């Protein structure tokens, strides 16, 4: 097992170096090599999954002791093997598709190198056995994937990449604070030992810090801001991986907190459920308003992450009876990863032909392209929760977990942690409406690209005549991936249930023979209700309100989302770039004035004291010389006491000189008072000012968090 895990983690990293070397001279062979590495990675991942499925005892811990100080540890279970396999499958598909997509791109060598590095880091996260290993590779993954967003180096790309990196760095540093706190409380970071180690201890502060970091990567509200900005500018293969698999590394961390630390914790489950509901609704609304193809898919990812978070929250609320929530959460993770693989690659086909994504400009491109329409439709029907597609299975499980908890509260109101039966009923309707919004925005994209005609008749003729819009390899990859959704939906017992059996152990659910009747009337009712709501929302909002009729009779899509609701532009950037520097500058300015005043006072006081001491010593010496130890009486004749008088006077004057040149430095001019102490304080103020005006806000937050952590540890030690 050790060699297999090492291969999965380090083969892509080694392949990155080799591909970069090959690509300097032979770009075509570099493409072949990257594709070969991705295929080989998928073969290794598939073999690992097969070994675990045929031999459940195929587990254990693989350790690289001494590496990165604390060592790196990896392990295998059903959840991990499934997601290692999914990640490898997605990298294989996007790598094969990238050969055509990047044909006319610059800096391809750089992209492929960081793509493979990110693959190794992502596999390591899912295989990690302790949170220290998770954190190390989490940061590697974040920094390597930054290059994807900045790939074409346009102004908007670099701005989106800066947002992505800022969220990643700040999230990572706050997560590190959480790990410090957790290790102090529990004494371990081993994932499988956390539940017992944390029992009876206050680990909520640590959990909240870690949730901040993992939630930022997952795209949980209000840290979702990077997804709608990064996906439209990133290359489509990168967008598929960012949305489909990198967000799941964040969900992996949320599951570790929720299922390994707060297993069956109703309070924590309530908090996660609230975050999930907000993320689910806000992402869906943003997607419906968007008129950019990839931005719509990015906002959709925010919404679907919200669905998964709702399932994780329901796990905590349902306690030991959380079978539906556990299986629904895991299956929707799997489904969303595969949905976004297909949908973003379909968007990539459009972009590599038109280099446009605005719905008004790409309108009608797919009218006479049945294969592309079929590929997109499979992904759209799947993510929309259409019966007999895989998305229907996972959404049904999530919906029924809400219904189950509502019924429990109706029968036993005393078991409510925060929500009543009535409020849970409201959440159920929010869930169904969010599902309806999914149907509405996916329908909007399909109608715009594959049904409607472009208002420019000549351009529409050009679109209709284009048949060579993707090569054979891209066609095969997209078609094979899209066929998974109806196959998994119609063969749910052999596919979806089997996957859920593999993944549920990680979330604390033991295997059971209980089966879910996915296509019973009650379950179909929920799915069909969402579809009906979606059709209504599309007609009322998508067609009537979000479209404008022009003078020539044609209709165009409008983005009616208020710009003032942009959290990044009107909240985060002003706070981090204006308010925080101004506040810190004001505070340090006040401290600077106080230290200047104090230093002047000490210097002036010291000068006066030094003068007084000097005068006092002179007076004492004169007194001694005129009384006890008189001066010489005759020329050349000294009394015994005069030598002692001389020594006392010399020593006293030496002390005065030392004091005047060190502690009480005397200066002949008033302006020289700042020569030593004041200039030191001035230098300190300038340094602090430069720090606060820089863009290292992650460092500021890290410092604040470090101080808070030390205070927390000291208070705990005193108690």
> Roughly what fraction of the amino acids lie in strands?
under 5%
Helix proportion range: over 70%
Report the major sheet.
Answer: 2 strands, antiparallel
State Rg: 34 Å
Folded structure, characterized:
With 719 residues, the chain is mostly helical. 74% of the residues lie in helices and 2% in strands. The strands form 2 sheets. Strands 1-2 form a two-stranded antiparallel sheet. Strand 1 and strand 2 form a beta hairpin. Helix 4 (108-127) runs antiparallel to helix 5 and helix 13 packs antiparallel against helix 15. It starts with a helix and ends with a helix. Mean pLDDT is 83; it is low at 632-641, 667-676 and 687-697.
List the helices and strands and how they pair.
Blueprint: H1 2-23, H2 27-54, E1 61-64, E2 72-75, H3 78-101, H4 108-127, H5 131-149, H6 155-186, H7 194-198, H8 204-218, H9 226-233, H10 236-261, H11 266-289, H12 293-318, H13 323-354, H14 359-362, H15 370-383, H16 390-411, H17 421-451, H18 457-465, H19 472-482, H20 484-490, H21 496-503, H22 521-545, E3 547-549, E4 555-557, H23 567-626, H24 640-661, H25 677-693, H26 697-718
Antiparallel strand pairs: 1-2, 3-4
